[in-house]
Write a structure and sequence with these properties.
By secondary structure, this protein is mainly alpha-helical. 57% of the residues lie in helices and 11% in strands. A hairpin with a 2-residue loop joins strand 5 and strand 6. The C terminus is likely disordered. Keywords: Cell inner membrane, Cell membrane, Membrane, Transmembrane, Transmembrane helix.
């Protein structure tokens, strides 16, 4: 049984790491956040899924996703088509975000898995394994092919009302790629990889260190350790001083708390609130059909789906594009305000709300992906054309800013500001 220490990333409560059966999740006894999920200590399955995902990704980028036929004319699009169209239409921000979230980030995620797992499986040495594996923590939230698929289905629903649409090989590749990348991640225990990549002489914080921390008093007890945000390695202050303030396992700079976390989170959230107004006032796209142009805002797009009888799709779009952004802004604002005021109250529930809002924010990108697909596919002049609007830029900015706001916030402040200083726990 392991006696390594593991700290909760959301409340910083220390636990003694225990062996749990594969597939089970260890949770923090204080705030309920997941600490780690055990998987069988092998890289075979995740490596196989990563290689399969790479093949599917190449197919998804090499063949048409949809083919649009109307009045004897046809247009096809690929994953890259939306990026090119946004750039040509004068929307470089949208082009960059779609390229990042639907092409670059997924490719980097898959490539990182193969680059790290293949040498570990076959036993050869390549440089920079720790650096590449460290980058995964930054890449993962920006890989949004699952959200792209929902946007694709919404676009498909809109097109089938007035034209013939044929799903291409890339459409099916994307459908299979999403569960494959999910299995790639869920069948791997990151702790196993970090331990295999760690320096040979690495010393883990143990139960004995915990007892020494408990023996401290005042500020010494409150700041006796730091947790690496990338690899979750628990480092005592004395060990951090020996390494120059860097994590001895992955090399990330360590700090007790994110500097200026609350002020940066507030600044990003307030900016998102300001941009949410033009995001709903200005059209996200303009549709020209048989010489007649009509602009669509987010809400008018939902109304059109309802009028055409597409209730399930309308509910999905309304939830992702209206309910989720508003609720995320309100809930994050409440969490930040309660933290800044040092309110006690239901800290466990407040932490759960933060975790949920952090996870769901990315799904609001559905409308942006839908516009990218329609604008790239429907380009038949006065017969039928879809052009992106400024509303899409503002709305995309809202989604990105709320995501960055949640990332900037340090949830451990929820407990610190409420007077719950760093505690040394012991659970198994």
């Amino acid at each position: 049984m392991s006696h390594r220490l593991v700290a909760c990333e959301h409340c910083d409560y220390l636990h003694v790491e225990d062996d749990i059966p594969p597939g089970f999740v260890a949770r923090c006894i204080r705030c309920g956040s997941p600490l780690y999920q055990a998987q069988k200590g092998t890289v075979e399955r995740p490596l196989a899924f990563a290689i399969t995902a790479l093949v599917l990704f190449l197919i998804a980028n090499s063949f048409p996703i949809l083919t649009f036929a109307m009045e004897g004319r046809t247009e096809s699009n690929t994953l890259l088509s939306g990026v090119v169209t946004f750039w040509q239409e004068g929307f470089p921000f949208l082009a960059f975000m779609v390229a990042l979230t639907s092409i670059a980030a997924p490719l980097m995620l898959i490539g990182a898995y193969i680059y790290v797992l293949a040498p570990l499986y076959f036993g050869f040495v390549v440089p920079g394994l720790r650096a590449v594996w460290r980058v995964l923590a930054v890449i993962r939230p920006w890989s949004m092919l699952d959200v792209f698929l929902i946007g694709l289905l919404v676009a498909l629903t809109k097109l089938t009302d007035f034209a013939d649409v044929i799903a291409g090989p890339a459409f099916y590749a994307v459908c299979f790629l999403i569960p494959t990348t999910l299995l790639m991640s869920t069948t791997l225990d990151p702790r196993t990889i970090w331990r295999r990549l760690a320096p040979e002489n690495l010393r883990y914080a143990t139960l004995e260190d915990l007892e020494e921390l408990r023996a401290g008093t005042g500020q010494e007890k409150a700041t006796g350790w730091m947790t690496c945000e990338i690899c979750a390695f628990v480092v005592t202050d004395s060990a951090a001083r020996e390494t120059g303030g860097k994590c001895p396992r992955c090399g990330t700079h360590l700090h007790h708390r994110k500097s200026g976390s609350l002020s940066r989170a507030w600044a990003l959230l307030v900016t998102a609130v300001v941009l949410y107004i033009p995001a709903n006032i200005f059209p996200i796209m303009t549709i020209t059909y048989l010489g007649r142009a009509e602009s669509d805002t987010i809400l008018s797009g939902v109304v059109v789906l309802l009028q055409s009888g597409q209730w399930p799709i309308a509910i999905v779009v309304f939830t992702a594009s209206v309910v989720v952004p508003i609720m995320k802004i309100i809930l994050l604002g409440w969490v930040y305000a309660a933290t800044g005021l040092g309110l006690a109250g239901p800290l466990r529930e407040r932490t759960l709300i933060y975790r949920v809002t952090e996870l769901i924010g990315r799904w609001s990108m559905i409308d942006v992906f839908m516009v990218s697909i329609l604008a790239a596919l429907v380009k038949l002049g006065n017969i039928a054309t879809v052009a992106p609007g400024f509303g899409a830029v503002a709305f995309c900015a809202v989604v990105i800013l709320t995501m960055l706001s949640a990332m900037a916030f340090d949830p451990r402040l929820i407990w610190d500001r409420a007077g719950m200083q760093k505690e040394q726990g012991m659970s198994s």
